[in-house]
Each structure stands twice: as structure tokens, then as C-alpha cells.
């Protein structure tokens, strides 16, 4: 446990830094430019850097360099990029630093999870997940408390300091071998639209062979691409909309914390279940169908039909619950039907590409037409993804595999 503890401390500190920086980076772009376009552009660059790094750089680097070095380099890179934003006065420079931030951020969790599993076995992975969740909650809490007094620039400096501090336990902790085990799937954090890794899943099948052959239906990949395009469309400009609606920066961090807590509770309930392949597919259908309505709900608050604070609290509660279903169903289907870890890697690619496409479309749409356009477009994409998932669910109706997700 002593060797693992160093890694857990590093994961906690980094997760707190990322929770603060992911929101503050976008808010600082708004402070400098006052433009939704530049806000979404910064998210697009972050997602592009994260996607490239998670799909290419992390695997190449982990084969050629020690995991210990990759993890430390990732933390140093994040610290430099985030702290650099705080001292930049040009929105273009801040946007480019978001790209750098994305590249280095993608290096950290795969190597940390791999190191934890080598040090403590698969039972260590839930501890990494717990350290990450606690770090995010702590980061959101600190930011909510101090956003009003130190501002977003101060928050970026704090985030950079925390990421730099995470290097120390890495230097004094156990040496990490090269190589990355598994392909953790990226997700869109619930307020910012920026990619990050979900908790990695350890799936234990109750059957030695799959009941359905032929791999993951192509409709699952198509639905993933479309759904995550909608996710990025919805969340990338959301900090601007929330500020315009009168929600404070502290309130934005509290929404992020609420969504994380909701998804954590829902995931804890789901992971205790023995899910069949068909049930996991139906879970995806239900979650994506729910997002059709969830993505339209903010318009009730922004349009003055209901108190905006209450509406957004409901939105992020539902976002957290539905994300738990998505982040359970997709990896389990990919693991069981798509060739194990390589199958999750393919889903990872479609998620990453969807986030980039969604951010790319959101930039001009948010600037020209605002929340009505981006919310409606995101809702329509969620509806289209539901159709794809429903077709896949019909094809998998006879699959009886059961497996338990624990993470």
C-alpha cells in the first residue's frame, strides 16, 4: 500500500488541478475576448490535442520511455500550460496553451492506472478512481469557495501549482515500467466539454465465450460518434451561457460538483448489477433518449420560463445520472463484443473524434445563434444517436452474456 499511496496522492492532486483548470481556462478566455467563439475554439484545441495524444502519443511514448518519465512529463506540461494561461494577455496565446494542455493531460491517467495495476493488481484501480473523484470534488469545492475573491487567473495559478505539486510524489514514488494496460475511454466533463478519461472498467465475464459473434455492431460506433458530437455542441459554449444568465463562477463549479456526485452515486448502483450485453445496449438507448430532453431543458431557464438556477441544477443532475449509464454501457459492450481492450480503444477513437467535430461545429453556431441553436442541434444529435443505439440493441437482443463492471 505504501508504494501505491504515492500514486494515489499524485492522482488526487492532478485531479483537483484539472477540475479547477478545465472550467477556469474557458472562463479566462471569456474574460479576455468576451466571445463565445473563442471560448469554443479553446475547447476545440484542447479536445484536438487530447484526442491526438490519447490515441497516438501516449502509446508511442509508453513503449519508448519509462512510464515514470511519461507521468512526470505530463504533470510538468500541464502545470506549465495552465500557469502560463494565467499570465497570458492574448486570447490566441491562451487558446494555443489549451492545445498544449490537452496533449499533456492525456498522458497522465493511462500511465497512472497502468502503474497502479502493476503495483497493486486490478484491486488498485478502484482506489485510483476514488482518488480521482475525491480530487475533482476537492478542486471544484476550492474553486467555488475562492472564485469570487481570487478570480479565474488566480484559480489557474492554483491549478498550475497543484499539478506541479503532483510531480513530487511521482518522483519519490515507485518506478513505473513502460507500457500502458488498457484503453480508458474519454468523456466530456459536465460543464466544460473538455475531454478527460472516465474511470477505467474492469469487466469480469460470467461466461467464457461471447454469446453473440460478429463484434460490436457498426451502429454502436455511429451512435457514439453522433452522441459525443452532440455532447461537445451542448457543453463547449455552456460556460458563456451560464455567465450570461447570471450564474456566478462559483455557481458553475458547484454545478460541476453536483454532476460528478450524481454520476458517482448512479455508477455505484449500476456497477453492482450483473449486466447482460442486451441490457447494456438498452441502457445506452435509455440514456441517449433522455439526453434529447435534457439538452433542451436549459432553454426554459435561459428564456425566462423558469428560474435559471433551478433549471440548471436539474439539468446537471440528469446529466450526471445519464453519464453513468453511458460510461457503463459503452465500455462493457466494447470489452465483450469488440475484442477486449482493443474494442474499447476503437470506441475511444469515435468518442474523441465526436468531441472534436462537435466543438468545431459549436464555435460558429454559438457565436451566431446562441443557446437555442446549440441546444437544439445537440438534442437532435442525441435523438439520432438513440436511433443508432436502438438498432444495435435490436441486433443484440438475443445476447445473454452477463458481466459485472467494477471500477
Automatic annotation (TrEMBL):
Residue intervals passing through the bilayer: 37-57, 69-88, 94-116, 128-148, 154-172, 218-238, 250-270, 282-305, 311-335, 347-365, 371-392
Keywords: Membrane, Transmembrane, Transmembrane helix
Gene3D superfamilies per record: MFS general substrate transporter like domains
Tagged with keyword Transmembrane helix: yes
Domain of life of the organism encoding this protein: Archaea
Protein name: MFS transporter
Organism listed in the record: Hyperthermus butylicus (strain DSM 5456 / JCM 9403 / PLM1-5)
Source taxonomy: Archaea, Thermoproteota, Thermoprotei, Desulfurococcales, Pyrodictiaceae
